[in-house]
Predict the 3D structure of the following.
Amino acid sequence: MSVTTQVLERDGELVIALTGRIDREAAAELDSAYGAVRTHAAVGLDFTAVDYINSTGIALIVGVLARARADGVRLRASGLTPHYRHIFEITRLSDFIEIAPSDTQQS
Amino acid sequence: MIEQSVSPRQRRAAERREARAARHQRIEPTASRTERIEVEIDEGDPLLVYLRAAPGPVEIGALPDYSPAVGRMREQGVRIVVPLVTSSELVGVLALGERLSERPYSRNDHRLLDSLARYAAPALRLGQLMRAQEQQARERERIEQELHIAQLIQQQFLPAALPELGGWHVAAFYRPARTVGGDFYDLIELADGRVMVVAGDVTDKGVPAALVMASTHALLRSTAGVETAPGSVLRRVNELLIPQIPAGMFVTCLVLVIDTETGRTQYANAGHNLPYLRRDGAVVQLEARGMPLGLLPGSTYDEHETVIELGDLVLLYSDGITEQHDTEGAMFGFERTAALVSEARSGDDLVDRAVDALARFAVGVEQEDDITLVTLHRGRSRGDVVAFELPSETGNEREAMQRVRELLDGALPPELLDALCTAVSETVMNAIEHGNRGEPSLAVRIVVRRTVEEVSVEVADFGRGLQQRTELPDLERKLAGLQTPRGWGLFLIEQLVDRVVERVDGERHIVRLVMRVDEHPDITPTERTTP
């Protein structure tokens, strides 16, 4: 498995903290992590410990986003490097997932 | 009843064989008392002219005695001959033996046979035409298949992968006007470590040119083992070629021998286009003249010498580019070619621009001759080019990305390097999964180049060709379930780098990702040093 997840509560918000790579092998883990939080109104995805996202990983995030929209769950993302924030922008994921501002300064 | 069709010319030989076989057969009367008798009618037999003009069925006795076929028919008991004529063309002959009643054919029989012939002739003609057409289609298919094989064989003569010559970068383009061509080029590493570069052009195009190209190329290769002076190579190949080249054909050929350490280059020319050399923005031609190969025994070739300096760019080209016409009849010419050399940023860039410019120039006109371009670019510093290979195993795209990151550390601002690395990872993943179909024994070859102006990463696989352009990914459509969530790879690659160039070189499919170093004014020097 390329990614591990940990569900935790941070500042009153439910957050899935991701560690590792988001690629094809991350599918099952991402799926089950989302399954555990799907009844909440808002969920954060923390990418601080993610060092690699490829096109298949983007497709998985699109899949999670589609499920979240169907479930009425609002997604937020934090901890993205400028490069992956750029990728969220060109794929327009940032239009649907709120990106925490100035991530680099936060960490 | 006997039927003998007059066959179209191309089937005559086969039918003659069949007929001959039938004649040798002892024909036994069958229970129904019918006999099958084959009669061969030669193309020049006067019977054919006679029957074409005959008004209807003719008794054997009324036919010209001097026809060999008539004699053969008599021997086989033929009594009456019915010409099958349609559109005043004799398409077959109905030959009948004795009536079963052993009585002569009546006038009624004649009328019946005559009307039968009128109906049968057009139908028979149609059948013959269809058969001929099928035969032609099969023949065309066979020729196409053979040409395809010839093309594959010819590709083997051209270098599959251009060698990386310490600090030099070679790029090439080859496109025959037909399936196969008479142009060729090669890079031959000599025993003393120098490199012989040859480019040539056989008169004419298509299969004849390709055959002469193959033998000239073989002669050049074998000569390079014994001669290393370009003039001597050309002199020797000329002598060897003369006895075997068809009259009226000849080969132009340029030979350069380069010491890649020093750039010292000897060259000689057998009537080929003069190469261009660009140095410090000025474009000159390397002058060298001589008789094309295969024309005149005893031809000699002057040797010239130059030094290709750091940063110099050389273009070898065939007249398929300079002599291409546009719709108005104007030629592409030397001036446009020289201008391309002057503007190019690198050898690859020169090839790309030339192919592009030629396509735009000759839009609506078919390619007239084989086109070959070979560029030699001597990098400004050594170690500009690094190539490595990885087996096609999932996960190696990250290995490729990591190595590219290390190689280009400091060459690009961090954000651009990140973008290039993701594009490299995606491209290598495509090469592993699609191009090489996950076959670990097939390597993905990665070539990383740095020049002052740009950084490029080439990813080569053994895929069948250029990728199908799929629907542009659209997130809203994906979220609505109207598009698969996947399909981001190519999109990311194109968004993340400055230029993506795809091409096929022999059996390799190559994707080149280019990142300009100097055209990102939005990134200030301070940002560039941010880790």
User: Anything to note?
Assistant: Residues 103-107 of chain A have pLDDT under 50 and may be disordered. The radius of gyration of chain A is 12 Å. The longest strand of chain A covers residues 42-53. The CA atoms of residues 22 and 35 of chain A lie 17 Å apart.
